[in-house]
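Data availability (excerpt). The following record was deposited with the supplementary files.
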Amino acid sequence: MYRSTTFENLLAKAWSPFDWGEVTVVLSVSGGADSVALLRAMAALVPSNSVGRLVVAHLNHQLRGDDSANDERFVRDLAETLGLSFDVERADHARLEAVGQDGLEAAARQARYDFLRRTAERWGARYVATGHTADDQAETILHRIVRGTGITGLSGMARARTLSPATTLIRPLLTFRRAEIVAYLDELGQGYRTDASNTDTRFTRNRIRHDLLPRLTQEYNPSVVDALLRLGSLARESQGVVDRLVDDLRSRCVTRPCDSPVSVAVDTSQLRDQPRYVVRELLLAVWRDEKWPMQAMGFTQWESLAALLLGDADMGDEPPTRKKVFPGGIVAERHGDRFMLIPPKE
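Predicted structure:
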């Protein structure tokens, strides 16, 4: 059983108040156990002479009628009790519902991050903190394995990532298990909201949480969550090596011509001996830098793009100039050792 002070001390080690106590931090609070524990612990850790500010942010998806309204009211009351600022938006539930059951999870997640980005901009926040836990991480990794993924996907959720040029998204609870969270709240006597939709097995993530993971734990490996977390850690280390190699190749091979419709040019002569995975990762990094659409770019598209860049022999007896159009209207062309990516005209 974790005493409240123990949990708070562990959080302080995971993310020191000296790193955030003097700036504005937006806390994403749904009302569930994880985000409520993050809120209570960070409120307790704010240095007494701090000039920073905690802002409680809540997005009401309006998908569960009175339950959604009660979630919002609960979070508002808790923020007021703790003397913290509260920011809320209500999502366009009709628009979310229009995507259908299969796309609802992704649409709701995107709506939440868009809201957090806007909230951070309104308050001038340096950080946005979410309540994702180690259990969420294991579920994410398993979800990606089931769906199909590469090394980057196996890495799971990053502890920190850029949310906007001025704001970093951070997940301080990513090393904490859900049982620790609940024990902390129980000791505080702090209630929290339970979202009934989290048990709805029409959603893939819920089936993984309530069916697949328990079955793997009971029938295959009692420590499967720990195994998934180790896999994620190893994948992050491996991807880190690849990322450094990609950064080096990008500085040597990739240029952005001025006064030209070509957005990106790549010297392929330095890539012929590189592992194919590294070439795909280089292309993915360039695509991301240019902010071109990622959603429609699956493994088949990345492989096709890499094949065009490398001039694979299996492309047949085509003329020396090769050209193909990719999602977003991005045109890829290769002329000898010169590979070019050209966005559509605006």
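Summary of structural features: The domain at 4-219 is CATH 3.40.50.620 (Rossmann fold).
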